[in-house]
Amino acid sequence: MTQLIPMISQEEIKTKVRETGRKISQDYKDKNLVLAGILKGSFIFLSDLTREITIDHEIDLIGVSSYSGTSSTGKITFTKKPDLDLGGKDVLLVEDIVDTGSTLLAIKDYLKSLNPASIKICSLIDKHERRKTDIAVDYACFLLDKGFIVGYGLDYNERYRNLPAIFDLKL
Ligand code: 5GP
Ligand code: MG
Ligand code: MG
């Protein structure tokens, strides 16, 4: 039987996202910030984070597919490339969760060819135990050792994205 075990509450998420938005606003106050959300998992985090950022910024979306079920396939394909001109911009990639890091490594490699001034990473969750790459998460709201979580944008086979809080999925 599938079980959803509460892990991070709506209140905890709100507090952390606010804190992260403030930090980003401070760090990027003299820069040309572009938030680049990675579809689809980041869509709820991105929409909350952008409203907690108090400096002027642009938003773009990047689509990749890399995951099916609960384990990474290691390959990515772009379903949507960024449509802003990122040349000279300070790109902050917004992810739902960084696990092995291979998705972000591939995205970062591609973005470098667009000549942005900088590329950093902001992730709602930093799941560091299975990291296989030297990807550094510059802004992380929460750290997680292991497990598979859903809710607040994160899915299991496209379900549970709508849950307002984060749950541990036990199959
Ligand atoms: P990576 O390439 O870092 O191994 O995988 C990153 C992507 O896999 C994440 O952006 C997310 O879409 C998916 N993923 C990794 N761990 C989890 C998890 O615990 N829950 C969910 N729902 N997706 C995950
Ligand atoms: Mg993702
Ligand atoms: Mg997914």
Automatic annotation (TrEMBL):
MF terms (GO), sorted A to Z: guanine phosphoribosyltransferase activity; hypoxanthine phosphoribosyltransferase activity; magnesium ion binding; nucleotide binding
Domain Phosphoribosyltransferase: start-end pairs: 10-156
Enzyme class, UniProt record, top EC level: transferase
EC number: 2.4.2.8
Signal recorded as keyword: no
Metal-binding listed as a keyword: yes
CC annotations in GO: cytosol
Family annotation (InterPro entries): HGPRT (IPR050408), Hxn_phspho_trans (IPR005904), PRTase-like (IPR029057), PRTase_dom (IPR000836)
GO biological-process terms attached to the record: GMP salvage; guanine salvage; hypoxanthine metabolic process; IMP salvage; purine ribonucleoside salvage
Cofactor(s) demanded: Mg(2+)
Pathway annotation from the record: Purine metabolism; IMP biosynthesis via salvage pathway; IMP from hypoxanthine: step 1/1
Subcellular location: Cytoplasm
Keywords: Cytoplasm, Glycosyltransferase, Magnesium, Metal-binding, Nucleotide-binding, Purine salvage, Transferase
Catalytic activity, as annotated: IMP + diphosphate = hypoxanthine + 5-phospho-alpha-D-ribose 1-diphosphate; GMP + diphosphate = guanine + 5-phospho-alpha-D-ribose 1-diphosphate
Major localisation: cytoplasm
Family recorded in the similarity comment: Belongs to the purine/pyrimidine phosphoribosyltransferase family.
Protein known as: Hypoxanthine phosphoribosyltransferase
UniProt lineage: Bacteria, Pseudomonadati, Thermodesulfobacteriota, Desulfobacteria, Desulfobacterales
